[in-house]
Design brief:
Structural class: alpha+beta
Number of strands: 4
Largest sheet: 4 strands, antiparallel
Helix content: 40-55%
Order of helices and strands: EEEHHEHHHHHHH
Shape: globular
Strand content: 5-15%
Radius of gyration: 22 Å
Mean pLDDT: 83
C-alpha cells in the first residue's frame, strides 16, 4: 500500500482486506451511502508510519510524558488531515507525505479546525468541560444545598450539569430548533465561562445560536 520513501500510496478501502504495512498504521477516510444520499467519495485508506514516541512532547506540548491518549489523539488528527487532502483533491488523492501528517502538521491542523472548522458536538462538549463545568458544578450544588461530601451528591449534581452540556451540544445540529429557555441557558453558560465576548469560540457559539433562532419548523422539515 505504501512504499519505503516518505510518500504513502492512497488506495480504495476494502473492509476486511485493507491492511497497514508492518510497523505502520492504517489511516482511513470513510463515506457511507444511504437510499437518498450516495457517498460523496469512495472510501480510501493509506498505510502510514507509526507515531514517533521519541518526539519531544515536553518541549512541544508541555506534557510531562508521552502516553497512549496523545497517540490516539494524533492518529485522529492524521485521519482528519488525510480526509481534508482527499476532499481538496476532489476524490483523486494519489499519495500522502510524511510532512503532511507529521506531529507539527497535526498540531497546526487541530488549531486550524478549532479556529475555523465546523462546530461539532465534540468541540462544544470539550469547550464546556474546559470552561463551564467547574463553575456550574458549584452553582448547582449550592442551589441543591449540597456540599458534595458524598458520592450520591456528586452524582446528582453531575446529572444536572450534563443536562446543560447536552443543551450546548444541540447547537451543532443542522436541524436544531432551540426553545427560549435553552437559549437563555446557553447565554448563562457563556457568562459562567468568564471568557470575553470577543473570544473566537464564544463568537462562533453566539453566531450559531442566532442562526438557529432564525430557523423555522418548515425549514427543518423541508415543507
Amino acid at each position: 500500500m505504501s512504499n519505503v520513501s516518505n510518500r504513502h500510496t492512497v488506495e480504495l478501502f476494502e473492509s476486511g482486506k485493507s491492511e497497514a504495512l508492518s510497523g505502520q498504521r492504517l489511516a482511513k477516510v470513510g463515506y457511507k451511502s444511504t437510499a437518498k444520499n450516495p457517498a460523496k467519495f469512495p472510501s480510501i485508506c493509506v498505510s502510514v508510519p507509526a507515531i514517533d514516541t521519541g518526539y519531544d512532547f515536553e518541549q512541544a506540548l508541555g506534557a510531562g510524558k508521552f502516553n497512549a491518549v496523545i497517540v490516539e489523539w494524533l492518529q485522529g488528527q492524521q485521519d482528519s488531515i488525510v480526509r481534508t487532502l482527499y476532499e481538496a483533491a476532489g476524490g483523486k488523492l494519489s499519495d500522502v507525505t510524511d510532512d503532511q501528517i507529521s506531529i507539527d502538521a497535526c498540531l497546526n491542523h487541530y488549531q486550524t479546525v478549532q479556529a475555523g472548522g465546523r462546530l461539532t458536538a465534540e468541540v462544544l462538549g470539550n469547550w464546556f468541560d474546559s470552561n463551564v463545568r467547574d463553575n456550574l458544578t458549584v452553582i448547582v450544588a449550592d442551589k441543591l444545598g449540597f456540599d458534595l461530601s458524598t458520592q450520591e451528591q456528586e452524582d446528582t449534581v453531575a446529572k444536572h450539569v450534563t443536562v446543560y452540556r447536552d443543551i450546548l451540544c444541540l447547537v451543532a445540529g443542522n436541524k436544531t430548533i432551540l426553545e427560549a429557555k435553552q437559549r437563555t441557558a446557553i447565554d448563562r453558560m457563556i457568562e459562567l465561562s468568564g471568557i470575553s465576548a470577543e473570544d473566537t469560540m464564544v463568537k462562533r457559539i453566539v453566531e450559531k445560536v442566532e442562526e438557529i433562532s432564525r430557523r423555522k419548523v418548515s425549514d427543518i422539515l423541508d415543507i
